[in-house]
């Protein structure tokens, strides 16, 4: 019985490794397809700048069919690998296998990590491919509109170019005006803040002056007494000086 369960586990591991190898090859090819699609679109875009050819930008039909076919194949392989991982998980949880078999759990976790990495890589590459295709479809539509417009009369093209330039000038002027207004508003806010601060300081000083009138009165009395003492002292010094002079000359 143990040998049978061991063979079953080994068969599952072989299936998982085989599917992982196939997925690795498929994902490499899938990534190359996306890269070649991007490079070819860039070359066609540069070529269309200097030619009036109205043929499609890309040989999109064949590449799109190849993309769809490879995507379906990879999704099928991922589904099969998921099923094998589920069977391996059921095997590790079965009654005939010790629940604390660290080697089996480690192997299962490694296969699950590989499956997760392949799934993430597939979805990332697929999303990049779809984004490039949508962008190229949009750019192709824009280029066609531009080419169709360029086939019009030269006078209309020239007039449109002048209108576009004037429109750019107006947009630049609006941007400069908005920046000037923003600077003025910021300056106004700073001045308003400073005025409020000064008003607050003035109000506090008035409050202190009104709160301590006795202190002001006392200070005034002290100043008057100092002046009186200064006058008295000055008078005494003057009298003493006169007396000394009279004594000296006699």
UniProtKB/TrEMBL annotation:
It is found in: Golgi apparatus membrane. Residues 41-51 have a biased composition (Basic and acidic residues). Keywords: ER-Golgi transport, Golgi apparatus, Membrane, Protein transport, Receptor, Transmembrane, Transmembrane helix, Transport. The chain crosses the membrane at residues 231-249. GO terms for biological process: endoplasmic reticulum to Golgi vesicle-mediated transport; inter-Golgi cisterna vesicle-mediated transport; protein transport; vesicle fusion. One of its GO terms (molecular function) is SNAP receptor activity. It is a single-pass type IV membrane protein. The keyword Metal-binding does not apply. InterPro entries: Golgi_SNAP_su1. Belongs to the GOSR1 family. Component of several multiprotein Golgi SNARE complexes. Involved in transport from the ER to the Golgi apparatus as well as in intra-Golgi transport. It belongs to a super-family of proteins called t-SNAREs or soluble NSF (N-ethylmaleimide-sensitive factor) attachment protein receptor. May play a protective role against hydrogen peroxide induced cytotoxicity under glutathione depleted conditions in neuronal cells by regulating the intracellular ROS levels via inhibition of p38 MAPK (MAPK11, MAPK12, MAPK13 and MAPK14). Participates in docking and fusion stage of ER to cis-Golgi transport. This is Golgi SNAP receptor complex member 1. It comes from Hipposideros armiger.
């Amino acid at each position: 019985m143990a040998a049978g369960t061991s063979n079953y586990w080994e068969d599952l591991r072989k299936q998982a490794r085989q599917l992982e190898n196939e997925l690795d090859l498929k994902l490499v090819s899938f990534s190359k397809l996306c890269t070649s699609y991007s490079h070819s679109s860039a070359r066609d875009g540069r070529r269309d700048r200097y030619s009036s050819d109205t043929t499609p930008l890309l040989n999109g039909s064949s590449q799109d069919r190849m993309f769809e076919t490879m995507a379906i194949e990879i999704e099928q392989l991922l589904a099969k690998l998921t099923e094998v991982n589920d069977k391996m998980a059921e095997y590790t949880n079965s009654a005939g296998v010790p629940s604390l078999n660290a080697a089996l759990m480690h192997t299962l976790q490694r296969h699950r990590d590989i499956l997760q990495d392949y799934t993430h890589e597939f979805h990332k590459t697929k999303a990049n491919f779809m984004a490039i295709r949508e962008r190229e479809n949009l750019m192709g539509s824009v280029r066609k509109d531009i080419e169709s417009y360029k086939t019009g009369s030269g006078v209309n093209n020239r007039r449109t170019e002048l209108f576009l330039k004037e429109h750019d000038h107006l947009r630049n002027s609006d941007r400069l005006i908005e920046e000037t207004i923003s600077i003025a508003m910021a300056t106004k806010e700073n001045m308003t803040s400073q005025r409020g601060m000064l008003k607050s300081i003035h109000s506090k000083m008035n409050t202190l002056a009104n709160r301590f009138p006795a202190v002001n009165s006392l200070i005034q009395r002290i100043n008057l007494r100092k002046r009186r003492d200064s006058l008295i002292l000055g008078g005494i010094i003057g009298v003493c000086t006169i007396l000394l002079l009279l004594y000296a000359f006699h």
